[in-house]
Design a protein that fits this description.
The chain is of the alpha+beta class. Helices cover about 20% and strands about 25% of the residues. Helix 1 (about 10-20) packs antiparallel against helix 2 (about 25-35). The protein starts with a strand and ends in a 15-residue tail after the last strand.
Length: about 180
């Protein structure tokens, strides 16, 4: 698989992967909104290709904790793999490559609201237990789905608080099951 940064010219491929992966338009609409949201910058948008066909997409956007303005943070939302390529390591490759890029770019923490049995394989830990509050209440039965990963050693433990996302992601409908 070839992984490369998604550019403006790739928007149709990005949205096609999102629609195919989720089977509906909601995630594709969110991605489109996030790609046009200035408050989401800096962003990282990567596409995975197999034989020239886009098969996976991952998007990270900026988040902040008001009390820690110098800490660089991102949130992974969403990760999408076309159905015929799921369970073949595509998502994992996108996560690993993107975390390498984010680390090199100086990002300190990465958050995700995702499957609690999937993301820990890539170093994510339950965020609430480490002092990080999601923008909206996460019910106790889903608390393990709110996760964080430290990309700069020593940040967890010295930084905590409530995350604020970009304008487009900071809406309650994106934080419900």
């Amino acid at each position: 698989m070839e992984i490369r940064e998604a550019k403006d010219k790739n928007i149709n491929e990005v949205l096609s992967v999102e629609k195919s992966a989720f089977g509906y338009d909601k995630e594709a609409e969110l991605v489109n909104d996030l790609l046009n949201d200035k408050t989401a910058e800096p962003r990282l948008s990567l596409l995975g290709f197999d034989d020239g066909k886009a098969i996976g997409h991952i998007l990270y956007t900026k988040v902040i904790i008001k009390e820690f303005p110098d800490t660089k943070m991102s949130i992974l939302a969403p990760l999408a793999v076309v159905p015929e390529k799921q369970k073949q390591g595509v998502g994992g490759e996108l996560i690993v490559r993107s975390l390498e890029i984010l680390t090199k770019s100086g990002v300190d923490l990465v958050f995700v609201l995702g499957h609690p049995e999937y993301y820990p394989k890539f170093g994510f830990k339950t965020a609430g237990e480490l002092g990080f509050e999601a923008p909206y209440h996460i019910p106790e039965e889903h608390a393990e789905a709110w996760m964080v990963q430290e990309l700069k050693p020593g940040v967890i433990g010295s930084v905590k608080g409530k995350i604020k996302c970009s304008v487009e992601l900071n809406k309650p409908e994106h934080w419900r099951e």
